[in-house]
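We close this part of the discussion by returning to an individual protein. Part of our work consisted of pairing the sequence of a single chain with a tokenised description of its backbone. The amino acid sequence and the backbone structure tokens for this protein are reproduced below.
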Amino acid sequence: MWNFVGNEHVVSLLSKSVINGHISHSYLFSGPANVGKETLAIKFAQFLQCKDFSTEGPCGACLSCWKISKENHPDVQFIEVNPAKNISGNKFSVGIEDIIDIQRTFILKPLEGMYRIFIFREASFLTEDAFGALLKWIEEPPPNVVFILITDNYSEILPTITSRCQTIAFTHVSQEKIESALAQSSYGDKQQRLELSKLSKGSIGWAIKASKNPEIIDDYKHKIHIASTLFENDLESRLKYAEDIDRTLRNDKEEAIKHLGVLMSWWRDLMVIKNGLPGNALNTFALDVLLRHSAMMSNFQILTFIHKIGETIELLKNNVNSRLVLDSLMLSVPDKLENNK
């Protein structure tokens, strides 16, 4: 059984492709973060290699399925940024040396299964040279080889790669399905499940992790608290916030972008509340502060700052002068309206 929540169209497509014998040599699993792309890539690999094959999906119990779940199957290899394992030693990318190092395994016959499967975790981390080395094999794949590239950043994958892969598009999972999954895992009460499903914003992977690790929710609420104070803080405090994010950015760009994503979440809630839709707010645990702040600004001010946050995120992704951009963002925090409209 697939035992997979959301993106049913993807499960159906992959299942039919195997049952009908129309397996592609290369797939590109693309979509938002934490919606199950890697989980389904692993399940798809299990389905292809399952020793107890059924049209209902991978059994999940045979030795082959178990080995794949433990990333210990000789015919299923995971490629990712891992300086301890990759020959290039790169901390932020998969280099051409890493692809050349594994090329010799592309032509080997499967040892235990029907296929040799290569799963690329976040393919956008491959350098341009690494993509070039991989392209040759995607264009002329050896028999019984399946490449699965996973990405949250489709636009960063070279067109020469995307045009030669079967793109599998994932979408966010509905709030109702996430609530149901949390209920099946016996997480919290109804209100807690509703709150967590909203906070996940359609990312079921994040919701499942957060349900098992309370510190994830605590960390998120702490970030929301900091974001919520910016509006009433003085300029010095706002610039300190910019400095902290800039420091994070230098060590972990993804984490810094997440901080700004939390800020965006807060201002998005201000927007929906300002427009009379408090039930659509995500951060319901801070509804009283949201209501108070939304009354102090105009709709135009809120929308303008949301646009500024989005612009800042894109600029930081493109490696501009981060401190300048972040300081500019803080200088754009709206002032309170004198008449509170």
Summary: Residues 253-274 form the longest helix (22 residues). The CA atoms of residues 131 and 161 lie 8 Å apart. The beta strands are 26-30, 76-79, 116-120, 145-151, 166-169.
